[in-house]
Structures are given as C-alpha cells and as structure tokens.
Amino acid sequence: MSPIKRTLGAAAIAMCASTAAFAEDVELQFYFPVAVGGAAADTIQALTDEYVANNPSVKIDAVYAGSYQDTVAKVLTAARGGDAPQLSVILSVDMFTLLDEDLILPFDDFATTAEDKEWLNGFYPSFMENSRTGGKTYGIPFQRSTPVLYWNKEAFKEAGLDPNTPPATWEEMVSMGKKLVKKNASGEVERWGVRIPSSGFPYWLFQGLSTQNDVILANNDGNKTNFDDPKVVEALQYLVDLSGKYGVMAPGIIEWGSTPKAFFEGQTAMMWTTTGNLTNVRKNAPFDFGVGMLPANKRRGAPTGGGNFYMFKGSTDAELKAAFDFIKWITGPEQSAKWTIATGYVAPRPATWETDAMKAYTADFPPALVARDQLEYAVAELSTYENQRITRIFNDALEAAITGKKTPEEALKEAQQKADAILKAYR
What we know:
Elements: E1 26-32, H1 38-54, E2 58-64, H2 68-80, E3 87-91, H3 95-100, H4 114-120, H5 125-128, E4 132-133, E5 136-137, E6 140-145, E7 147-152, H6 153-158, H7 170-180, E8 182-183, E9 189-195, H8 202-212, H9 230-244, H10 259-264, E10 268-274, H11 278-284, E11 289-292, E12 302-303, E13 305-311, H12 317-330, H13 333-343, H14 350-353, H15 356-364, H16 368-374, E14 378-379, H17 387-402, H18 408-423
Parallel strand pairs: 1-2, 1-3, 9-10, 12-14
Antiparallel strand pairs: 3-13, 4-5, 6-13, 7-10, 7-11, 8-9
Helix pairs in contact: 1-13, 8-9, 17-18
C-alpha cells in the first residue's frame, strides 16, 4: 500500500455526538477485521458513510483486512513501514503487543472535556479490563463478545427435560448431557449432549471453565500466568472428562468453525460458542433454541472477547482528533445499537441498551440480553506480553490433555514453565 501524504497541521475540533467542525480536510485509514462483503462489512460501511456525510471534510478509507490475525499483521507491517493507519479494530488481547511495539496512543490524552470523560467511563467494566493498563486506556470496546450456552429445545423435550431450563452447573451439564446423548441401533452416537470447541483458540472457551472454577489465567499487567494452578488443572480435567469419563461430548479436538452447523443438524443438543453467532443461530437453526449463561461451578463466569478500537502514532494532530471523534461517534448509543442488531455482538455500553432500537430488538428477541447480563460475571480474556506465543503454548497444553498425550497436570506444568521463561523479562 503506498503511503498517503499528509501535510495537515493541528486543527481545533468541536466534539459532539454526530458532527464535528474540522478546519481542514482530513483523510483517515481505518483497518477493520472482516473480509469484503457480509453483514459486518456492510454495516461498518453504512455507519462510516453516515459519519462522512455528517462530516464532509473527513474522508475515511475503510480497509477490510480479513481475520483478526490478518488485520494485526497488516497494521504492524504498515506501521513498521511508516504508514500506520490512524485507527483500527484489533483484538483486545493484542493491547500488550501493540504497546510493546510502541504503536498506540492512550485515549485519555484525547478525552479532555467532561463529555469526553463521561463517554470514556461509560463502557462496561468487564470490557475495560482488556482495554486499560498502567492507569491508561488504550482500547475502546466495539466488536466485543462473550461465550454463551445455546441449547436445542426440541432435543430437551425429546430427552424428557424441561426445554426452558438449561444446565446451571457443571454437574447439571453432565446429568442433562447424558440424557441428551442419542445413539442408533448399532450403538453409534447420533447426537452428543454438548459441544465445546477446542480448535483455533481453545483457550477462550476453556477460560469459561477456569473462571467458573474461580481462577484467573493471567495478571492484569500481562507478565505472569497461572497455568499450573490446581484450579486450572481441575477445570481441564473436567473438560477431558466430558468425553472420557462422562461420555457426553465427542472425543478429540472439536472444530470451532463447524460447531454451529453441527448444532443446526442435530449432532449436538448444546454448544458453547460466541454471542457473535447469535444472529447466525437465529437465522439458521431449524428448531426452537435457547440461549443461557455458561453453567457455574464455584462461581459463574466467562471471558470477554473480540475487538477494540486503537489509535496509532505517526499521524498529525488533526488526523488523530478526527479519528477520536469518529470512534466516539460510532461507539455512541444509536450507532452501536445498529451494530449489535446487525451482528449479534454485545453492545459495550449500558446506554446502548436504553435506546428505543435496542429495547425493541430485545423485546422481540430476549436471548440477546443473556450476554449483557453475563457481563456481571465476566473477566478479561487471556492477554499477556508476547501474547501469540503465550496463547500458543497454552493451546498446545490443552490439546495435549484433550487428545490424551499428557495428563492435565503434566501439560499445564510444562506450559507454565515455558510461559515463565518468556514473561520474566517483562516483570
């Protein structure tokens, strides 16, 4: 991508909810983690066009950069080449990586008015856990999610279970799961009780289990992990036992991408997946389904997930002020309501849920409220310095235990030793 020449000086900008008066024309690059096309891209483009229409002195080039991994790689490449975008949506867990590269700016430096500070402090605290460090705010929640439990109400009826009552505890997930397993005349399983994906980024759904067992995988400073904590070992043993001991889940690695399809086709009666699949399930499930909080053990709990807005160094004051204004606008109640309704991602601000649009949406589709209500029990997604290396180590440990290559205790002890070797330099 050829660099865009910018010679704009600092400009005074009057911040407001929908329009801002810019003294000079401003051109922004905005990297967004979706492929071209689809509901997410269409909605982002529509919102971007709406902002530009209200602010004709601002031009925004929305670059649809593919997956989250593709997006952060492209941003890093552009930044190292001296052509960083002004803003991008990147995984919240990449905050420490971006800080380590000295690429991002704290939003506190831009939120100087009382209105700005009210906006900055208006997000759900659980989402801000992956957005702040060292007393500064580096990420603004936008495309955020949390895992929830989906269940097939028809399968529950068939198994003699109350179709409106999902499992509330680990024990109930096992007992209900056993009743939901369906075998053919040859003894082969046609429908499993539950499906918890363990491919791609298995640490995320596993964090549901570890949080429910009342243990946190990493500290807030991103420089220490607790992988070998006995409570983490116990949570991994439970995950392994769902297949090996209790027989309610298919053995081996369970694919993330194929899980919704397996649910639609009746191959599993329950599944754990992101609330970001809510719209997909609503459109494609050929049966009545329910959405509930993940079952509890020592406590309720789930990780947050998804992407934050970041602003990057290397641009003019005018560009950065315009980028801040756009981020403030698009995360406002009316705009984030449009985004949530179109995609199923969790609206990250309480004010969004009070809009007429969201009230009408949730009145028509109450399951959308589950993820919001679960935020009370949510914790930060696993995030550390050298995050990709650390999560790969942890994912490998989970795989080793799930496939029976190592015991949970052996796998997690080894993972902790490897993580310590990497993170000791950041303490």
